[in-house]
Specification:
- The complex is a heterotrimer.
- Chain A is mostly helical.
- Chain A has twelve helices and two strands, in the order βααααβαααααααα.
- Chain A has a two-stranded parallel ribbon.
- In chain A, helix 4 packs antiparallel against helix 5.
- Chain B is an all-alpha fold.
- The radius of gyration of chain C is 22 Å and the shape is globular.
- The chains are: A mainly alpha, B mainly alpha, C alpha/beta.
- Chains in contact: A-B, A-C, B-C.
- The interface between A and B is large, with 81 and 69 residues.
Chain lengths: 313, 116, 445
Amino acid sequence: MTSLVQQAPAWSVLVAVPLVLCAAVLAGSLDAVLDPRGELPLRARLLRPVYEASRSLLVQRRSTTAPDRLLWAVGVVTPLLVAVLMAQVVPLGFAVVSDLGVGLVWFNAMDVLLWAGWWLAGWGPNSVYSLIGGYRFLAQALAYELPLMFALTAPAVAASSLSVPQIVAAQQGRWFIVQMPLAAVVFAAAVAAFAAWGPFAHPVGQDIAGGLLVEQSGPARLLLRWGQYALLVVGSAMTVALFLGGGAGPLLPPWLWTLLKSAAVLAVLLAMRHRMPVWRPDRLMRLAWLVVLPLVLAQLLVVSVLAAAGGGS
Amino acid sequence: MGDFVSILAALGLVLLAAVVVLVAHRLLTVGTTSEPVAPYLSGARPTEHALSRYHVRWYTLTLLFLAFDVEMLFMYAWALVVAEMGAGAVVEMFVFLGLLMAGVVYAWREGALRWV
Amino acid sequence: MGLRTSAQRLLAGWAARRPHVLLVTAPGGTAARLAVEAQARALGGVLTGEPADADVLVVAGSPDGELADAVGVLWSQIPAPKVRVDVLDSARAAALLSAGIHRLASTPDAGAESTEQVEPMGEHVHQQEAEMGHEHGGDGGHGHGGHTDAEQGGHEHGGHDHGGMQMPGGLMMADRAPDRDGLKLDVLHVALGPVLPAWPSGLVIDVELQGDVVQGAEVRVLAGAGDAMRFWADGTGVAAGRRRAAAHLDSVGRLLEVAGWSGAADRARGQRDVLLTETGEPVGEAREELRRLRRRVERSWGLRRSLAGLGRLGHGDVSRLGLSGPAARAAERGGDVWARLQTWLVEADLALSSGPVAPAEGPRGRPGRGSDALVAAAAHLMPGLDLGDARLVVASLDPDPDDLHSTGVAGDRDPHSGHGENGHHDEGPHGMPGGTNHQHDGHVA
């Protein structure tokens, strides 16, 4: 079973990082294509990331009164950094840049870094709406993090491994989404939540004038937006690896299957933007703790019982 | 070990990308650096610093969260051995999780999930 | 340098394909606002609320007093390259906006320079506006003195000389005040408005925030140009029905935007524009469109969960606050934000089929009083809510600044008599506590 999994050569990181960065740009295009607002030609939509990046590179350098420069800068690079570091354990086909053996824990550790990253990006500019946006993210994180963690545990239990490539290998017969659909949905939703996206965009809400984005201009805004798309891309790829059989599929090579499935998950996540209202964090909190958490635990119980029955006999 | 070398390399590459963006901006930007502008306040000028001791009203929830978060430490190790240990491991873990959920229900009844 | 300049031109051309428009509406500027919104959409642009993200500042109508001052502050917060476009006449919105964007695309390196052109000596005389001779009087209070010594190419921001404190940036640290639990906590003073995304432009609610919870709210209505007209009150017969429906859809769009559902908000705005422009379109089709939107909105479980139970105004509150119009009739449905949203959608439909629900009233209720009561209700409801909830409550009441202004509650038509603080209170009580343009609902005990 493990023979399926390959540790990619050391230089693969030189391919993997640019791949994630480029995929995030393409995600920006796809987001523009899926934007329900306005009647724009396809070309204008596909090129939207180019237009936005142009603006960011052109604008005058700008700073607010008495900002916390160091922490601001740390916050601004964190989302992109986290996305790329997460990507190190996500297999493309059956090859992975770093099979840490505990890739799942690594992914979890990286996503927790976002708590600090988003909050610091909000704290840095010394601006009220920005600060409120940062704290909104923390409130939201308290809601999504536990369901995310337990959703992550379910495939680990089913595969008896914390290594992502092993988890992929374990579902060659049957994808994990069949026995744990709820964990898959919760995980995908949590990806949107840690990217502050769609119904979880409260920290960057229009009601607080863009929240933690309100003072970001030029390179800072570019890096944060890029990071958001990169998080969605990597999160989609991780959803595919954990629940949708990774590179498993007929005819096409595994790496292509991974890309196709990831693009499909990504499209769903991107389409949520503009198409549903934002969840307010106090309501989200009650939903997460009182409904989603027990459901995910029940899902985990089912998976554990299946694993115990299968492995024990 | 090699795994962590490539992770360090990835970290370096992202920082490099950020530096490239910064340098490109420095080369292409118009005008000079502006004086610090007042933070956005709907068109008003601020009279006080926004950075302050921010009152988070969900602080009780953070304690509840911490209980579960520490629990995750066991969870990962446990996940590896469930299939091997069988029913006993499942029962033990879910009794423990059940106790934690009882804590959630208690916190809910005390109003910790409703803070505004 | 040649390479750099041509690279800048290339980037400026690309950036201008998706202009980011920061739109400020002055009292009486509703027609211009609608035209700009539609035109920005048609040009592939996007409306933004963040000066840091904007490159086109559009001022619809002519602001003065505190609003003009706010426009000056916002302009200083927008990084170059940037243009300012003043739209007084809705018929010229398209041409002016296109010209502004064209200028943005063609002269990126002049971005910083254009700052000076637009704002030479406390006056905003825009190139494209020259024929209109549109200018702004220098304002008192804050002044633009800080700009005169601006260095070449840069734009200087004055106004950091408050109080001569030796604090970083010349700002005070946040003060402390008791909160509802009796703890002594930092309190921030934040003005909501006059310019905020999906906000009734010109309305200012000064709030005291502890964390993101509103502890106190005080409402002001800024003075406008003086010849404000109530845009939504026009029309008779079938036209009145269409206009009423459009007015409600305008409100619905703002509420949905605040609720974070920009797709549906865009649909509401699109239907609003169709109702206002294509008078030839059959009413049946418009109603069908409207019903589709209504079904979509009412089916949303997430929206309902967010809005239900929030900002409740029962029958008692309605009579005490003197509410009229849809906000009063929403009490039948429960009187919360969700009920007010539904009432707008239902009444818009009725207005299309059989004319405005209450023909003697405006879309905000009794003429001359509707919006005042709505403002009073907002001040009554806000303390104790978190900022997001407070925004939803204001958006669900949606007072019309034009309405407020033309009833004179805004007082203070004189741009030199301070910024609404010393407004004339001689207009008499309009069903508001104290009959002033201030409502202070105190603190949460």
